[in-house]
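Final report, Chapter 2: Outcomes

The project's central promise was a pipeline that accepts a single protein chain and returns its three-dimensional structure in a standardized token representation, suitable for archiving and comparison. That pipeline is now operational. To close this chapter, we reproduce one record exactly as it appears in the project archive, with the input sequence first and the structure output second.
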Amino acid sequence: MKVKKLKRGFFQRIMGKPATPLPENNDFWSCRDGKITIDLSKTPALDAKSGAIRIEGEIPAKLLVVHGEDGEFHVFENKCSHGARCVDPVPGTQTVQCCSVNTSTYDYQGNVIFGPANAPLTVHPFVVEDGKLVIKLD
């Protein structure tokens, strides 16, 4: 299977620097009662397909939220199952890919489709209601 690789420099991959930047502030999300609520009106990065945001901080696990090429949102625990590096969406595909040299690649269901990863990504369920994305944490 031929997999499109996210264009990144060798040193970016060696250092494991994700392509999806951290947001400048965290005023667009909150965590309460085992759920993360994202105000979609405050997240322009999610307006376009392949847009993504990273959520990190006082939560059980780092998350990556992607506006997929399929027009749907997808929420992943942002930790590759091979080495625990971050993952990023690959524009023009329906995949996310590890930021390291090995480029483990996953489909939107979290299944490994390329690379040395030996387990799927954790995918979190969510609903969209009243302009908010509500993610259920396990």
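Archive annotation: Residues 10-20+27-136 form a domain with the Rieske Iron-sulfur Protein fold (CATH 2.102.10.10).
This record, like all others produced under the grant, will remain available to the consortium after the project formally closes.
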